[in-house]
Amino acid sequence: MKVTLEQIDELRSRVNVSYEEAKRTLEKNDGDLIKSIIELENKKKNKNSRNTNFTSFTNRLLALKMSVKDKEGKTMMDIPLVIVLFAFLMSFWTVIILLALAVFTSCKIKIYRDKNSINVSNLKKNMKETVEKIKVKSEKIIDVDTEDFPEDKDDSEESEIIIE
């Protein structure tokens, strides 16, 4: 079945997709608009669920922490496990020696899930707020600069340097 431009426009107005994807989906479904809408919405749901799965995995990974306590129970080190793993990859022998030293000095090494850990959504929110603050401050700085040096200044008062 031949798909018309009106059908493609209708599908694009209902589901935010490109002309090419709308045409391909309509041709696949023999011009049936309802089947095409359902198919495209299901594709979007699957894509969003993959992003959600990655975010939840990242949140769980960021929640893991490693704590090292001495004999008296004082915390010597309490850092995210991701940093320990990264350091392990970057300098294998240093981490091995430090872990062996902790074991020989009777330190307690504990890996646990922190309930109040950082999560990806909070990081995104904080980054957006920081970017907005930077934008506002930079606009203020630019406004102050343009007030100090107006561009419509009279050219008759040129600065001259005279060397005698």
Low-confidence stretches: none
Would you list the SSEs in sequence order as H and E?
HHHEEHHEH
Share of helical residues:
55-70%
**Shape field:** flat
Backbone CA Rg: 30 Å
Write the layout of secondary structure elements.
Elements: H1 5-14, H2 19-28, H3 33-63, E1 64-69, E2 75-80, H4 81-90, H5 92-104, E3 108-113, H6 120-148
Antiparallel strand pairs: 1-2, 1-3
Question: How would you characterize the overall build of this protein?
Answer:
4% of the residues are buried. With 164 residues, this protein is mainly alpha-helical. The chain folds into three domains: 5-60, Helicase, Ruva Protein, domain 3, CATH 1.10.8; 63-113, no CATH class; 119-149. Helices cover 63% and strands 11% of the residues. A hairpin with a 5-residue loop joins β1 (64-69) and β2 (75-80). Strands 2-1-3 form a three-stranded antiparallel beta sheet. It has six helices and three strands; from the N terminus they run αααββααβα.
